[in-house]
């Protein structure tokens, strides 16, 4: 191994090759020439004294060593990005760049008006919104603030519980007019259910006992929650949906509200070191306040007049 440390640009090139799968694609992503990127890879291998890629006519294949180094290079990239974001923030000013991570549904259906209101008050703020149903690592600074559905366990994180998001069973009134209305949980299996393709541990933990909501019953299977909501709105079938989202559309009818009620705990989380940033404190507080309002409003069970619904008793 050489006696000098590889420069960050070599690790950046390594990450690009790992992500893109070839020198040519990685070079395009970085705006480099392929020979220059190839020199970066050779220099990194020589400096570290390891082989990172097996070369063949079919292209590059990462070695076991490359796979072992990947999470460390990703951590370096996250730290570099966090450093750049921190450098955009002036002392005491609510300005600069902040990165938020949230699930696809929260990011698309819930956060936009919340972030728009924040931007109206603080025009010097740039938001990076990273949407994924995977939990990003705040300790590694993959993001500054996260919206999570589970309480974090790391001591270095600051978390605020903002309530429980209510979930209900819904169908579009067009679907119900054509197919009738299920009168019990057992009836659900006779309808076009919309659900997941792969059952995750989180889904298994969330699913209430006695509800026939399993993969073998689904008429549409997708692991993209936004696609499931779109199918629900299109009248494809019956699906579980956040009540706060469904309540915006009078055509979405809640089914068996007295029989089915599910809640997701919701948290706003950031690294404790970011409390010194005026921007992060302001954004953290704004998100928490707005999401408290959202979770509170979504727990209601409004009854909408509809020719498809039998007269219902008044619900509190």
Automatic annotation (TrEMBL):
<dbReference type="InterPro" id="IPR036388">
    <property type="entry name" value="WH-like_DNA-bd_sf"/>
</dbReference>
<dbReference type="InterPro" id="IPR000847">
    <property type="entry name" value="LysR_HTH_N"/>
</dbReference>
<feature type="domain" description="HTH lysR-type">
    <location>
        <begin position="12"/>
        <end position="63"/>
    </location>
</feature>
<dbReference type="GO" id="GO:0006351">
    <property type="term" value="P:DNA-templated transcription"/>
</dbReference>
<keyword id="KW-0804">Transcription</keyword>
<dbReference type="InterPro" id="IPR058163">
    <property type="entry name" value="LysR-type_TF_proteobact-type"/>
</dbReference>
<keyword id="KW-0805">Transcription regulation</keyword>
<dbReference type="Pfam" id="PF00126">
    <property type="entry name" value="HTH_1"/>
</dbReference>
<comment type="similarity">
    <text>Belongs to the LysR transcriptional regulatory family.</text>
</comment>
<dbReference type="InterPro" id="IPR005119">
    <property type="entry name" value="LysR_subst-bd"/>
</dbReference>
<dbReference type="GO" id="GO:0003700">
    <property type="term" value="F:DNA-binding transcription factor activity"/>
</dbReference>
<dbReference type="GO" id="GO:0043565">
    <property type="term" value="F:sequence-specific DNA binding"/>
</dbReference>
<dbReference type="Pfam" id="PF03466">
    <property type="entry name" value="LysR_substrate"/>
</dbReference>
<keyword id="KW-0238">DNA-binding</keyword>
<dbReference type="InterPro" id="IPR036390">
    <property type="entry name" value="WH_DNA-bd_sf"/>
</dbReference>
<protein>
    <submittedName>
        <fullName>LysR family transcriptional regulator</fullName>
    </submittedName>
</protein>
